[in-house]
Specification:
Strand content: under 5%
Number of helices: 2
Radius of gyration: 54 Å
Helix content: over 70%
Largest sheet: none
Number of strands: 0
Length: 129
């Protein structure tokens, strides 16, 4: 059997350094690729979050617009109370007028009834000598 030929120490060390360098380069390439994938995933997540935030803010802005529309179109409380007071006063006035009218009719009926009774009594007295 033949003995392996002796390799000079310098060649051996250089080959080991080269092998280690290749191993480190391949691991580094793997880590770089993994970090690039992670960074890409984080960018996609940030983009999705920005889109979701924009959608939420557009919904909030739409809600604010609806509130502004309501504020412009709804009647203020003071004005509503004033109008209700006017309606209430008008209703009370009509009720008092109808009470007065009802009392007028009662007086009229009483006068006519009294006149009828008086005429009746006069007619009965004239009919009996």
């Amino acid at each position: 059997m033949s003995e392996p030929s002796p390799v000079p120490l310098r060649d051996y060390i250089e080959s080991r350094i080269l092998a280690e360098r290749n191993l480190i380069d391949s691991k580094l390439d793997g880590h770089i690729k993994l970090n690039d994938e992670r960074f890409s995933a984080m960018q996609r997540a940030v983009t999705k979050a920005e889109i979701a935030t924009d959608n939420r803010f557009s919904a909030v802005n739409e809600f604010r617009g609806q509130l502004a529309d309501q504020f412009r179109t709804l009647m203020p409380r003071a004005e509503a109370e004033m109008r209700l007071k006017v309606l209430e006063d008008s209703t009370l006035e009509r009720q008092s007028q109808s009470k007065g009218l009802g009392q007028g009719w009662a007086i009229l009926v009483a006068v006519v009834g009294l006149a009828g009774i008086i005429f009746g009594i006069v007619a009965v007295l004239r009919g009996h000598p």
